[in-house]
Amino acid sequence: MIEKEIKSKSEKVFPNGKDLGGASQNILIIGAGLCGSLLALRLGQRGYNVAVYEMRPDLRKVDISAGRSINLAFSDRGNKAMKLVGIDEKVNQLCIPMHGRMIHDANGNTFQSNYSGRDHEYINSISRGGLNALLLDEAEQHKNVSIYFNKKCTSVDFEKTTARFTDYRTKEEFIEDADIIIATDGAGSAMRKSYYLGKKFLFSFSQSYLSHGYKELSILPKPNGGYKIHKNALHIWPRKSFMLIALPNLDGSFTVTLFLSYDDGEYNFNNLTDEKIVLEFFQKEFPDALALMPNLTDDFFENPTAPLGTIKCSPWHYKGNTLLMGDAAHAIVPFYGQGMNASFEDIVEFDAVLNKHKGDWETVFQEYEKSRKKDTDAIADLAIDNFHEMKDHVANPIFQEKRKIEMALEKHFPKEYASKYSLVTFNEDIGYREAMLRGRAQDKAILNMLSDGVISPSDDIQLILDKVKNETEAILEDDRIAGLR
Amino acid sequence: MIEKEIKSKSEKVFPNGKDLGGASQNILIIGAGLCGSLLALRLGQRGYNVAVYEMRPDLRKVDISAGRSINLAFSDRGNKAMKLVGIDEKVNQLCIPMHGRMIHDANGNTFQSNYSGRDHEYINSISRGGLNALLLDEAEQHKNVSIYFNKKCTSVDFEKTTARFTDYRTKEEFIEDADIIIATDGAGSAMRKSYYLGKKFLFSFSQSYLSHGYKELSILPKPNGGYKIHKNALHIWPRKSFMLIALPNLDGSFTVTLFLSYDDGEYNFNNLTDEKIVLEFFQKEFPDALALMPNLTDDFFENPTAPLGTIKCSPWHYKGNTLLMGDAAHAIVPFYGQGMNASFEDIVEFDAVLNKHKGDWETVFQEYEKSRKKDTDAIADLAIDNFHEMKDHVANPIFQEKRKIEMALEKHFPKEYASKYSLVTFNEDIGYREAMLRGRAQDKAILNMLSDGVISPSDDIQLILDKVKNETEAILEDDRIAGLR
Description:
Strand content of chain A: 15-25%
Helix content of chain A: 25-40%
Largest interface: A-B, 28 and 28 residues
CATH architecture of the domain at 26-94 and 127-208 and 308-387 in chain A: 3-Layer(bba) Sandwich
Number of strands of chain A: 19
Distance between the termini of chain A: 55 Å
Number of helices of chain A: 15
Radius of gyration of chain A: 24 Å
Oligomer: homodimer
């Protein structure tokens, strides 16, 4: 194994010589994905000397997705971070609003279920690559920020605050030193692995996989470049034990995702092994979608099947030297459309703690984890709830009645009522945990009152609001007493 | 690295040549602790050709505890397994009944809180070493069972069904082959590590540590060999954020355990670094216990501080070749006194599945995990709940009122009412998960009705029973509707 000398902190970490002087500390960021590039931008704005090492090539120069660009759901918590760094208007140019779920039932009927009863509340489809490129451009405008590509982190020595890298092109191995290392290297984080394997402290860690995997497919644009199905919605084909979804892209296409069990059921990823059976499956379960996807079997066999995992861990930091952020600390399944938003919110929370305790990194890291982890644990659990809701409950009558009541409550009482979905998605000043507790209690109240005939969609809406509020408070209070809190 | 040839299945796995013929399969068990030795005994009784490899020396020949033997809580689920293998009467000789918790408050007052309102329901203190020795003796009486000590498993090749070992004395490395490998090698399982590191299949895994660690101490017998405090109770000194407990041994001593935070609070494991501060801590918080422990500081600095971890994982098996059981699959914290009992219950469950699907190991392993994992997940969560209950709630007035009501209900209606503690501990025919769901709903019902003045300990007991039953059903039904199950 060939290793270069460890570079000195003052000289070599930031090869372009961008040290702004004694007051500025050298921060090494591992990973220039969405979270890492936003972090680099913000820390650059704050005057730190920032070096970012990314294992992939520069996505602005090389088409690394090797196919259609993946899109993501972008909403208010993410946008709060864009406002913090002052690029919300530029990001807005990349967004396609989605006002609700467009449900495609087994008979080919469609109906739209809006995300909110308030017109200004909607989510957006955004290109991962486009947004990442913008963040890299913005970060690089700061002369105290440098980004290096094709450098894969293989481990971090968190006691020495050094990281080991391999250059993909030269195959050279080298070690970088810094005052602070922040790993934003995603669900497979090399630094988190070093925490786990190092056994230098008690590291609580979980990786948890759903029984389902996913595969990306596509609906191509019309010959004239238009959208084959309604542009401004998140399309869902719920089929109880599996589902298909589609999000629009700016070029008129949709990125389609199939969520399906690896092993269970008549059709699963393990037995969809040839064109005939894939077509049979789609013809039987998604005939309307199949009609839009002449390219189905090509996509199906070219694109990988990927697992759906949740990662939780603690502590996120070691002393005041190294810190995990974004998916590296808390990867979640995609069903609440909050993965990117949660990582962006990390930066907002981190920035606020930095304002309070600047200069004392150990306290910054401790306070950040203390205030933040309860919320990222909550969104992880909410995302798994939504997996079941999306494939199953959206087509369930009592669930649909609940949604109707909630839409009416949000429309009539825009300041007094927010559904769980709204609390999570559109109320960026409420933490995920509080949104989860209140949202779950509201759901329980409405479902039980509907089931018991205590409320009905035809009741006076003010009466419904009062009953829902009272029952929600009673549920929260009962839980509080039972927990002896 | 020196390696011997892989031994052939028929000849060398079981060096004593105990193959009983073609119908008998070779089963390799890794670990001869409580779970592994019971499994060896049961599989020996069933006629399998069993070889057990244990990393430690034979505890019947060497005093490996290097101090006082550790004791454990033994109760009905564990005893069901002892009945299965026909040694319950021998085990009974090793037991010291504990009828309840003896609470020692901060002022030195004591009061006993029984585990059940039914006189025949109590738990037992038992020596880990004594019980393990009995199980080894019983297993070795079967000529188709062989046990090898000082052989540490370092990894398992689950695709080839082979395990690699190091002999502690000769330092020799060797590989053993078998038809089936079952790992009962505890919380640090080598085979589980091979599952995790192998990345051959999606392996969900969590290790989760409490903020507290523990340290074993002791109360020595009186000079005449008698017990210094009441023999037939589990003693607790609850102090909200930490606690001390003591369980009796047959020799008149008590094994005492301090549960304390590593970092938080005025006194913690990180700052109890010299005799003076340890004595100051005990003098302030546990003066009555200190008076019984002239040997305190010796014990404190001789014995290690150990972490409190929960392990969950899935799948427990790879195809029909290898299987994790006991702590290797589901290590839990000790606060429900169910760790050993849960591992023993594993054997009962496994044996029942084996009766159904004998000969088809893959189905046996799948069915076993399917029926068992929900229950071991539940006892893991219940054990963490009890951590908070024991150090805090047992001294809480509303909790004490609930316990009084439950004791009265169990006494008056022995066949109609069982508390959560009874459901978990004394109702071995109800799974842990059902015990958890029903027990938590009952607790919530009683605590809320007490808090709201709907019931009071002075009410007619039949009236209380009716209200508790109705409210418990209502809570379970509300949860069912909210979960849309």
